Amino acid sequence: MGCAQVVQVPAAPTAKQAAALTACLDDHRQLYNAALEHRRTAYAKAGVSVRYGDQSAELKHIRVDDPGGQGRWSFSSQQATLRRLDKAFAAFFRRVKAGRTPGFPRFKGRGWFDTVEWPKDGDGCRWDSQPGHPSATFVRLQGIGHVRVHQHRPVKGWVKTIAVKREGSRWYVVLSCDHVPTETLTATGAVAGIDLGVAALVTTSGGEHVANPRHLVASADRLAAAQRALARKKRGSERRRKAVSRVAALHAKVRRQRLDSAHKAALALVRAYDLIAHEDLRITNMTRSASGIVEAPGRNVAAKSGLNRGILDAGWGVFLTILAHKAESAGRELIAVNPAGTSRTCSRCGHCAKENRVSQAEFRCQGCGHAAHADVNAAINILRAGLALRRAAGAA
């Protein structure tokens, strides 16, 4: 029994292959936009809802009519692009039903469609397509050829899907693997609750703090300079294209740094503890804008905006996703608990009040006088709630 895993490896296409990959992305983007226009027009003029099955059935005729364009690429990859649009509509209808801001699916510009997926290894694509090669690994993609990849470590498990992703001027192959063998770690007998924050990325119930690297803040000056340079460039010019690439490259570097820090922090926790309890955070809700509307403007908008930037820069969502994958692979137990009241409740006497949280770092119980670091106090409450959930699940 194994676990699922997503692996991203850098690709090194030749100049000809890079041009073919760019054409592949552009044709899939045009297919996405055409399918979106088809749905919009059919509903606006005839009140007809077009589904994925209808559009997938038309693919055969589209490919026959355009053999040098859409006909070059894998049929299954084009179906995956149509499914991507179908998922966007499904998410739109879910938001409408929930009473949230709907966000109707949009047409994709050149800079907003940078991934193509092949849903099954062997159908229009093949991972490790030249296994006999003595020193390199290749992935074969229909219409593009055998693309070399920089495989730093063996890919384990069964490759389920293959995707190609463009980040600025760089190309990556993203593999979704099933049945990855688990590497169970030796039991330590230790348990911990963790509190995520902005000042410190992670604070454990034992009082340890993992620093928040603040990668976006560290790159803020260079990003600001690159964005000012971009604003001065004429639209459609070669200089603007280079300026866009520069901004994208800086953001990509921040993403890679954040990912690396998350991997290291998660690995240290998984090695140290058999059970880790964390808050079940709804990060999208937490970082929602406080600006409001003209009739009902928000309050403390600047402070909330700064907090949102801090939360997103800390990368809580990325960290929790990586922690879950590593815990599963290592045979560790991960428990998500309701975060309500954990930062205001005294870990000693259980008194819960807003006034207990004196400042961002200081906790002082108004009931019993217990004083502690606010994040450590919250982490202890999170651990206690996680252990309670574990006992309840065992008794059920």
UniProtKB/TrEMBL annotation:
What residues does the Cas12f1-like TNB domain cover? 316-382
The record's listing under Pfam families reads: Cas12f1-like_TNB (PF07282), HTH_OrfB_IS605 (PF12323), OrfB_IS605 (PF01385)
Domain Transposase putative helix-turn-helix spans what residues? 11-45
Probable transposase IS891/IS1136/IS1341 domain: from which residue to which, for each copy?
181-289
Print the keywords alphabetically.
DNA recombination, DNA-binding, Metal-binding, Transposition, Zinc
Superkingdom of this entry's organism? Bacteria
Q: Does the keyword Metal-binding apply?
A: yes
Question: What family is this protein classified in?
Answer: In the C-terminal section; belongs to the transposase 35 family.
| UniProt-listed PANTHER family | RNA-GUIDED DNA ENDONUCLEASE RV2885C-RELATED (PTHR30405:SF11), TRANSPOSASE (PTHR30405)
* UniProt name for this protein: Transposase
Instruction: Write down the species.
Output: Nonomuraea corallina
* Organismal lineage: Bacteria, Bacillati, Actinomycetota, Actinomycetes, Streptosporangiales
